[in-house]
Amino acid sequence: MPELNLSEQDAYLLAQIQTDLSSATTLLSELPSGVTVFGSARTAPDDAAYQCAWRLGAWLGRAGLPVLTGGGPGIMEAVNRGAREADGISVGLNIELPYEQTPNPHLTHQLHFHHFSTRKLMLTRYSRGFVIFPGGFGTTDELLELLVAFHADRGARHPMVLVDGAFWSGLLTWFTEQLVSRQLIDLHNTDFIEVVDDEKAALGVLLGAEAAAHLMGRHPE
Predict the structure, then answer these.
(1) Average pLDDT taken over every residue of the chain
(2) Sign of the torsion angle spanned by Cα atoms 59, 139, 160, 169
């Protein structure tokens, strides 16, 4: 690609953003509101977190809720795999990276994004709930961006589940001991976060206890 001047770069950037948003809106607006799952791309299939995400994806698929992920390996692959194996809707919003981000093979719907900003917007705009598994910088960024959005607009809040209490406890303690104690945030900006250690507890938060129990009664394992 020839070198572009600044005006041409801006025009190219805007065109890419428009393409990202248009393609994603066309697809996602036609699907039921789903559940977005974030987590590490490096989690191996024999890891307990992978197995938990796989089972959660299957439960969401049985519930008729689309699962939305970044479309890559690790936790994303696990939840997409579970949903697809349960004949559910398995959506991957992929982005090209120099490492780690090959689309996983368990997607019923796939989009490719040029920019993180538009991808993150679409991973949240059409979701009715969020599940965050252990992960690195990307996962932590996604969690904090959700918290910022929910802080700015309480009416935009949806169920938020953090899986693996031992992993997240240090961050949550820091929220309380540092941010709340110094009055940098209000406690009610974190008290809606639910921390669980297994997929059935996560499902109870996302669907409500009664609906989750009914679903699990119809699909005993």
Answers:
(1) 90
(2) positive
User: For 6-218, CATH number?
Assistant: 3.40.50.450
Cross-strand pairs, 58: none
Can you list the alpha helix ranges (DSSP code H) found in 66-136?
75-85, 116-125
| Cβ-contact 40, 135 below 8 angstroms | yes
pLDDT in tens, 131-182: 999 999 999 999 999 998 888 777 678 999 999 999 999 999 999 899 989 9
- Furthest CA-CA distance within the chain: 61
Domain limits, the chain: 6-218
Among residues 158, 26, 19, 136, the alpha carbon closest in space to that of 70 is found at 136
Nearest-10 crossing angle of helices 48-62, 209-218: 90
Please say whether the beta carbons of 32 and 60 come within 8 A: no
- C-alpha torsion angle, residues 47, 50, 54, 59 (rounded to 10): 100
